[in-house]
Structures are given as C-alpha cells and as structure tokens.
Amino acid sequence: MRRLIRNGLLEADEGVDAVLEAFRAWDVDGDGRIDPTELERVLVLLNPSFTKTDMTKMMKAIDKNKDGSIDYEEFTDWIADKKPMKK
To answer: Where is each EF-hand domain found (predicted)?
Structure first.
C-alpha cells in the first residue's frame, strides 16, 4: 500500500507539493495530524477491502512517537520509506 501511494505522489511533477497536498487532504479536520478515523477513511477509499486491523497496523508503523496520530514529518518519512513498516 505504501509503495502504491508513494509512487503515485512522487510521480507528480511537484513531488514535495504533492506530498503536502496529500497530507492536507488526508487531514480532514485540518489540525495538522492524521488521526485513526482520517486514516481509515482514506485507506477504505483507496482499497475497500482494507480492514480495521490493517489500519491499526499501518497506524502503529507510521506513528513513530506513538501519540495516536500521524504528523507531517511521520507522513513524509513513511512516504520516503525511511523506516520499513512492521507487520
């Protein structure tokens, strides 16, 4: 899933702008963080077979500081594949 999202974003002419735009789109309430509900909403749109278990695993892998949400730095690190996701 990460590879699919990353490839789509980085293929855009304005790679950094595309990542920021994606983050803002995923951050529905505009608080600068993607919470589990926002993440689930996007993942189900991208792949309707995505489960809550899949979302929970993804959230744990991306949320490095374990505060329950994904900030922009965590999002960009995930997109850039700076740390492999654990299953």
So the answer is: 14-49, 50-85
d(CA 83, CA 55): 17
Under CATH, what is the fold of the domain 2-79?
Recoverin; domain 1 (1.10.238)
Q: Mean pLDDT score of the chain, rounded to an integer?
A: 83
Long-range contacts of 5-9, Cβ-Cβ distance < 8 Å, separation of 24 or more: 5/46, 5/79, 6/79, 6/80, 6/81, 9/79
Phi and psi for 35 in degrees, rounded to 5? -90, 170
pLDDT (0 to 100) of residue 7: 53
- ∠ Cα 73 3 85 (to 5°): 60
Residues 6+ apart with CB under 8 A from 58: 1, 39, 43, 85
